Amino acid sequence: MRELVYYVAVSLDGYIAGPEGQFDAFSLEGDHMADLERLADALPTDAAAHLGITQPGTRFGAVLMGWNTYAAGLPDGITSPYRHLEQFVFSRSRHSGTDDDGPENLVVTDRDPVDVVRELKREPGADIWLCGGGNLAAQLVDEIDRLIVKRHPKLFGSGIPAFASSAYRPSSFEMVDNRTFETGVAVTEYARRR
């Protein structure tokens, strides 16, 4: 069965973006960048092509994101950031009452994210990547099978937390992999304890 994997970059104080939604404080230079190929399916399609990285579609087959995460690329004309994956954008206000087939393999929906994830998990294919943001992660916390946290040695002070405040119950995960780099970035993978 497919797993839901929350793979996300975070600051030391647990934020996935700064106070105004900016994510450009995360370092894009250094030895941790060599780890990108391991999870190449989680790179935007155009960025992978620019870097000469092949996206095999073997780790992730679908990506989920909230509207604000998706909208980050719109000012630059990026309307389909992950064309190599099935893309699901969740929004309560930007829809026509039914799922909208967007550009290049993208659906904007107001459906319950839990229902969508449970349907996707029953389908054959590679895992499902939860790209962001914090509100969507909080809604899906009980469906998350793995967390891959790329922790950067930065403090944001405030911003968008990895999990928005919510009434979810404590969950236990066990560490299954940990990679540290000279840049101070650490990539740690956790699997849910069942």
Describe the protein in words:
The chain is α/β, with parallel strands linked by helices and 194 residues long. It has a single domain (4-127, 139-166, 175-192), classed as Dihydrofolate Reductase, subunit A, CATH 3.40.430.10. It has helices at 45-51, 67-71, 113-122, 134-139; strands spanning 4-10, 15-17, 60-66, 86-90, 100-101, 106-109, 127-132, 146-151, 160-161, 173-180, 186-192. The strands form two sheets. A nine-stranded mixed sheet has the order 5-6-4-3-7-1-8-11-10. A two-stranded antiparallel sheet has the order 2-9. The mean pLDDT is 90.
Mean pLDDT across every amino acid position: 90
- What is the global morphology? globular
Determine the CATH topology. Dihydrofolate Reductase, subunit A
Order of helices and strands: EEHEHEEEHEHEEEE
Largest sheet: 9 strands, mixed
Strands side by side in the biggest sheet: 5-6-4-3-7-1-8-11-10
Radius of gyration, taken over Cα atoms and rounded to an integer in Å: 16 Å
**SS-derived structural category:** alpha/beta
CATH homologous superfamily grouping: Dihydrofolate Reductase, subunit A
Number of helices: 4
CATH architecture: 3-Layer(aba) Sandwich
Question: N- to C-terminal separation?
Answer: 15 Å
> How many structural units, i.e. domains?
1
CATH first level: which class? Alpha Beta
Concise description?
The chain is of the alpha/beta class and 194 residues long.
Give me some keywords for this one.
Dihydrofolate Reductase, subunit A; 11 strands; nine-stranded mixed β-sheet; globular; two-stranded antiparallel sheet; alpha/beta
